[in-house]
Amino acid sequence: MSTNANRDIAVAILPLVGGAGNVTSVEHCMTRLRLGLRDRSLVQDEALKALPDVLGVVEDDTYQIVIGPGKVARVTPEFEALVEEQRPAEAHAVSADELAAQGAEMRAARKAKNATPFKLFLRRIANIFVPLIPALIGCGIIAGLNGLLTNLGWLPSVVPALAAMASGFMSLIAVFVGINTAKEFGGTPVLGGAVAAIIVFPGVENISVFGEKLAPGQGGVLGALAAAALAAFLEKRIRRVVPEALDVLVTPTLVVLLTGLVTIFGLMFVAGEIATGIGHAANWLLDNGGAFAGLLLGGFFLPLVMMGLHQALIPIHTTLIEQQGFTVLLPILAMAGAGQVGAAVAVYLKLKNNASIRKTIRSALPAGFLGVGEPLIYGVSLPLGRPFITACAGGALGGGFVGMFSMMGDKVGSTAIGPSGWALFPLLQGNHSLGATIAIYAGGLLVGYLAGFLFTYFFGFSKEMLVELNADPKTAPAAPEKVVASGTATPAETQPALQHSGS
User: Where is it mostly found (predicted)?
Assistant: First the structure.
């Protein structure tokens, strides 16, 4: 897509979110444009959903517009530039104070309903790790390529270079987590990175805690997160009492000193035990729960994606990758996307006359095969209702298939996080041959596709839904007039196909 086309998308979206004066922040993840808004009531939801390039909207701590993978990274800079261009021109018309006053009551009600401490905590954790995903993906794919070349005995002179590229980021990931954590909790990012760097410093092996030598990297990303959060907490309180003239010298020194001591003589050991427990728990779950554990994990992942809470699992995946070289959970969770794809194909075949829904499915399926589920969730299955449930059922059976093999001793893992679906193949790794690992994962996808399709085809629609939805709105006959209370006749309103509740 050309730059002009990306700007056109931004131009279409901006007035529907209240204009530049209503936008306080602009960010993006893999599929969504995330906006901070002063006044939620100024957003025109239905008009946004009707835009051809918008696949759905999600209201969370930020207002999230689903645009799709790749495209969102190109639209976001255009949107940011547009906001900066228009903000001065709009400032005279609507002030920040006026917008804040208009939206104060609505924001308070929304926060009381949705901003529970648990949800806010999970969102903060996600905000720390989401910016790291591109590097995790790139290094993970290089690691997979390096493993393939090593097994084949090809290009031995290149293998060490690829190993350095793949391992460099992972060896220092604690530092990046520390930087993002300090930023998220209101501290100085570089101080968060400084205290997190203690964890990966080779010299900690000379320090004994509770009678045992520390190991470089002990505690991993969990220790780095805790250390940087503590540093941000101390920094804000130290600044309150240190004279301004001495702040630049005293505050960072005390932050690094105090947090460093707590990290070395407490956090590294505690976080290391927790990280080890996570690894043991994941392996125990699949070794003993097998197919049942896979059913639960694969079946409940789509609802997490729907709520935007799936990214809170990133620290667990990252910890498993640090410990074992791969995460055994991601390939099972990826089966949810397979169930979603199978369900979408069934919807496509059942609604033969609904050109609108079929067009949405055709545009969203490629992303679905690559493991990006939001376009199909928000564009097809969730608005229809029942197909979302049958898609979850398909993902459950796919997860059960992979979980069954895990209990039999054939573990399937991923060397990085981010991709799923077909995009996960280059990242696959297990405890047996690469061919066996790929075969099990591919088998799980096929089970998920087939189960999602069959469940949706036979149980995804009531008779009423089929009558209402299985028609092309452009060619359907005009609805009969209905009599209203006043006795006058008005045309019956046709419900939008994608707003059906499925109840």
Answer: membrane
